[in-house]
């Protein structure tokens, strides 16, 4: 049985829905203990009184705000709630916006919202379905522990997701980054290279399926650990430096040649995949044309897919690559991508 880490109400207009907040992510990380190199004994984390040096029990640790040099105001968990009881117990929706209007860098950490009382199931379902049908998400304020967060209430299947958002001041600006400008001619980028890259992207495009992705590095690390166990080298610390990747020698890279080889390799796969598709699917022809340095057959432009956690859309024809001349017959309709869970992110509220 899942345990709520926070209980309160979703509030929008005059509607109030009692809910609990549940973690929406789980970390599957390999855990390491810190050891003393001398005798391999675990190194502990010690909470101690800095004046006496004595260790302090967890029950004897309290929160204090330093208002003057070494002078503190003690604050209890009840004080945190007492500061503003309404805010600490309410997901207060103030606006509704399109999910696609929120830039990805604002998303921080997801939680699930679930009703805590059976007689409020109708109100919960009403909000969920209204958000789905309108394509909107609720922008809200919520206090968790000792901080007020900005959040988005997003429908996902049968559950409402509370996605913690970053405030604008928490996102670093890009003005200090050295990135290429928009003058492609000055950068030596020509239209032919852009078109080649577009067709390569088109050939590598697939429907979003999070189940096909896997943390393969974890497997590699566990394989290394198992090899050390099997060889009896468990207490041998191998600090042999790993060979660094070759440094850039300043050699000019022929991007067009690399793109062409990539298109040729991907085109063979696309040609095989499209052999069983509708006759009007000319993706393979585009790859063959580009690989032969010929102008590809023009096709309608591909639309940018919606965010993974956006409300499920009705089936629609699958778009294809960007046009380069006159339009040609549209590709056979395909079903739209399945919605996926909001991305787990780091940064647990404090």
Brief account:
This protein has 350 residues and is of the alpha+beta class.
Q: What is the topological layout?
A:
Blueprint: E1 6-12, E2 15-23, E3 63-68, E4 71-75, H1 77-82, H2 85-88, E5 90-98, E6 107-115, H3 121-134, E7 136-144, E8 147-156, E9 159-165, H4 184-187, H5 191-203, H6 216-230, H7 255-274, H8 283-291
Parallel strand pairs: 1-5
Antiparallel strand pairs: 1-2, 2-6, 3-4, 5-7, 6-9, 7-8, 8-9
Helix pairs in contact: 5-7, 5-8, 7-8
What does this structure look like?
The chain is an alpha+beta fold and 350 residues long. The protein has a domain at 6-29 and 61-168: Ku70, Chain: A, Domain 2 (Beta Barrel). It is built from eight helices and nine strands. It has helices spanning 77-82, 85-88, 121-134, 184-187, 191-203, 216-230, 255-274, 283-291, and strands at 6-12, 15-23, 63-68, 71-75, 90-98, 107-115, 136-144, 147-156, 159-165. The strands form two sheets. A seven-stranded mixed barrel has the order 1-2-6-9-8-7-5. Strands 3-4 form a two-stranded antiparallel sheet. A hairpin with a 2-residue loop joins strand 7 (136-144) and strand 8. Helix 5 (191-203) packs parallel to helix 7, helix 5 packs across helix 8 (283-291) and helix 7 (255-274) packs antiparallel against helix 8. Residues 294-348 have low confidence and may be disordered.
